[in-house]
Amino acid sequence: SGRTPFYVALPLDTVSPDNNLNHMKAVSAGLKALKLLGVTGVSVPVWWGIVGNESEGKFNWSAYQSLAEMIRDSGLKLRFSLCLHGRPNISLPSWVVKIGESEPDIFFRDRAGKRYMHCLSLAVDELPVLAGKSPIQVYGEYLSEFKSSFSSLLGTTIT
């Protein structure tokens, strides 16, 4: 069509830290309005600390699946950002935080030595510090589970 695709970021709290879809009616109305305005789609972060919070290797995608279906039904496209870090009100998965309580060096530190509990250190990427697995292995599981859980929407709604 010659139009430049235009994506709008949904609010960061669209999915709550306890894995519920927030403001469903408002989101639904907003999606309809964005479609009428000619927006191509929306972008949403998918937080590892939300979907992988229960235990190592277990993921709960339910809120993000509901959101993806709402977006599909509105006729918009979706770009997920798969976030392997946390932020102030969204921690890393609780099982990772628990490991970090006894092994704080798994967390990122800046040059001044300040530790960031929302991000794993690159120094441990290939070390078996997460229940006998490396962060790279655990990230791979997260990405594989995402692909499996959203396969029916990949390439159509999720671009």
Automatic annotation (TrEMBL):
Pfam families: Glyco_hydro_14. InterPro entries: GH, Glyco_hydro_14. Its EC number is 3.2.1.2. It catalyses: Hydrolysis of (1->4)-alpha-D-glucosidic linkages in polysaccharides so as to remove successive maltose units from the non-reducing ends of the chains. GO terms for biological process: polysaccharide catabolic process. Keywords: Carbohydrate metabolism, Glycosidase, Hydrolase, Polysaccharide degradation. GO terms for molecular function: beta-amylase activity. Signal peptide: none annotated. It is an enzyme of class 3 (hydrolase). Belongs to the glycosyl hydrolase 14 family. This is Beta-amylase.
